[in-house]
Predict the 3D structure of the following.
Amino acid sequence: MRFIQILGTNGKGTTSTYIANILTEAGYRTGLYTSPHLISREERIRIDGKKIPKEVFDELERKHVDEGSFFKVFTKVCIDWFTSESVDFAVLECGLGGRRDPTTFYPSEVKVFTRIGMDHMHILGNSIESIAEEKFAAVRPHIKVVTIPQRKAAMDVAKRVASENDAELIVTDGYSLMPDGTVSYKGINGLQINSPADAAKINACLAIEAVKAIDGIDVSDDAIKEAVRKTVMPGRVQYFRDERILIDGAHNSDALEELHTILRKHHRGNMVLLTAATVRKDVSELSRLADEFGAYVVTTCAVPSRNLRAVELARQFRSAVAIEDVHEAYLYARKKAHDYDALLLVAGSLYLAGSALGELGYEC
């Protein structure tokens, strides 16, 4: 089993999924480990797109229950299942940081870095440089390091760490947007990206570079194009046209800024915002979004053990209705959207995105 690790702040799950889907499409048996889950924990662990069976998860979880944190347990469950199923590649999304993350233990031959931004500052540090140091600390000697062009502080860390480890540093180039809406990247034309977000296009190109960096494999352009075409990321700028609901797990400043940009470009009319936030999150970008679009705001608490109480979150908006129970909040917000002939935007938390998808009966 060969390992590919994906690190960064935003876009890890999307990039990991693109990589795994490309490898599967090319005929390689491929395991994918991502986090967090939106509806069921089995979503985190897949082989060729299929979730780990619940009974297998339960059995392996009991085996590793003493490993410590749930993420360590889940990682052991993942590796055990991938090993028993004889996968060719294990694509592992890093949980947090990189230096001490459980996925860093496994000898990845390619490490892939998505955009590094400000998140989890209470653990990783209060600057781009300190966060980058924690992420790039996962680099090992003589491997390949693939990254998008980072902010200068992060890029300086990437170059220094790659040099210190005699690692090959590969930086993605820009893509071209074609008149028909498809993307062209390094001679691969007609890439269909199922998202309006620029970040999705960047992450698809990053995934292509990552796959091309793997030694000794054969992946055709057709396999890449087909895998990209099939990839849909639940809860990431996901629009349900019939219900007029846009669900986005955006929860940090970079991701929320991109969501704001997409809405400026594509949305006209009324809006209802249903939102939740973890305790340390800065929701100022969401507050600005709500003000700009004149949104009717409903705050809730998707995960009581992790989220601000709805009433506390409501204070961070000019005007908001606080409903603690997430199911009741969803029903209330959906009714208001119907009454106002408005878009229902669900944003601010991946946990809230998962709850909304569950309400819609969506299968992740």
Notes: The chain has a mean pLDDT of 94. Residues 70-84 form the longest helix (15 residues). The chain has two domains: 2-230, 238-359.
